Amino acid sequence: MKINDIRKERKKIVKQLASDIYGTGIQGLINRLKKPARIITICLGFLFVTYSVVAYFPLDFGWFFVGLSLWVFAVASGYIGFLSSFICAFTVFSAYPFAEIIKNAIIGTLTQTNIDFLKSYIPTFVFLPIILILSLVVRSIQIKKPSFSAFNNQNGRINILDPALEQLYPIQGFENLIQVNFITHSKRRYSSIISDFIKFARVCDKQKALPAGAEFIEKDKEDSIEVTFYAYSSSESRIPPIKSYVTENLKDSKIYIISDINWNIYKDVIMPDDIIIQREYNKHFSENLEKRGVDLSQTKKLSYIIVFNSKNEAESCLKTAPENGFIPIKTDGEIIKHDKNAIKDMYIITLQLESKLGIERLNINSMNVIDFVKKFNGSLRHWMFSKA
Predict the structure, then answer these.
(1) CB contact at 8 A, 10 and 2
(2) Residues 293, 226: one domain?
């Protein structure tokens, strides 16, 4: 699997996580619009459109396009971010003179002044869509780059992980583990240490390495924090620039290059316990549902994605799933999907159950699923609302 393939997969995963939270189609749009700021923007747009009709009957295009651009901004900001949405809304508003001139042409009041203005305005109207396209391209590139979440193990240990990488590992070809260790004073803020890791991650990404995560361990007796950064590289020739950065910017650090073909260190050391990961995921998911005003006491069908290294173990899990309260479901026409991108054989199944959405219930579900699939050496990757 090449770095560009991983970036494309990361983009898909980010979009999937968003659709898991908000939903898809019309329902997904409605859920995104439920945020207070967007509701206010839509209401303002409605006021301007109404004013354009009532005060200037039959219609004043100026106020109408102000309202229309506010609607566009409210909708687009749920999908493409603030900056791109602002440019998109401004592009819509800039169409106002064209609409005014078309109206004048229809009713027979078009003047040479209108035509001259239109000619001078065309470059601006062409320039804005180009800027919009560029902003969308930049956003698309940013989505493909690593992003990180923190997991608190509640025992003085904090893990930083890329949620997308967590779903993709082990990745064929990235077998050189870069491990950076250093000790810092406990009075130093975590935000500062995380900033160091983000800079390290950017250097790794530039060298087409995969920043795998970080680990912070508090040493109370020593009044210090033991810090470890991790990254996987596909090529030894790309490691020296990363070494140089570490030597120059991370004081008193030690760097090690370890062969980890099967990503065992990632699974056993870098990743926190499955239950901790799922609790953080459940907390984030439940909070987003609550913000949207979703009734957490309602019952929904949830799909749990499970991975195995053995097809026989996946089949054994499927056979006993119904008697344990889980329903095996097909995805892409298959009960067991073979992941050909993995460095070793990996098989994926989806188990479904009906559940309420409160945080306690979600945590119990995760614990039950994890305990069940461990009997067959399976691992819970994530869960989502069932499509059907």
Answers:
(1) no
(2) no
Residue 223: inside a domain: yes
Separate counts of helices (H) and strands (E) for the chain: 14, 11
234 close to 3: Cβ distance less than 8 angstroms: yes
Same domain for 233 and 172?
A: yes
pLDDT-derived band at 19, boundaries 50, 70, 90:
low
DSSP state for residue 344 in the 8-state scheme: S
Are 161 and 253 in the same domain?
Answer: yes
> Which residue range is the domain that position 209 belongs to?
149-270
* Domains: count for the chain: 3
Residues 161 and 263 in one domain: yes
Helices marked H in 108-189: 112-144, 163-168
Q: Is 27 domain-assigned?
A: no
- pLDDT of residue 203 exceeding 90, the answer is yes
DSSP-based three-state secondary structure for 26: helix
Task: Write down the pLDDT at residue 188.
Answer: 67
Q: Would you call 266 helix, strand, or coil by DSSP?
A: helix
Q: Is residue 28 one of the residues assigned to a domain?
A: no
Determine contact, residues 41/76, Cβ cutoff 8 Å.
no
Phi, psi (degrees; rounded to nearest 5) at 72: -60, -45
Is residue 19 a part of any domain in this protein? Answer: no
Report the 10 Å Cβ neighbour count for 220: 8
* Two tokens, residue 303: 């799909």
Q: Give buried/exposed letters for 161-187 (b at 16+ CB in 10 A, else e).
A: bbbbbbbbbbbeebbbbbbbebebeee
Q: What is the pLDDT of residues 237-271, one digit of tens each?
A: 899 999 999 999 988 899 999 999 888 888 888 88
Burial class (CB in 10 A: 0-12, 13-18, 19+), 154: exposed
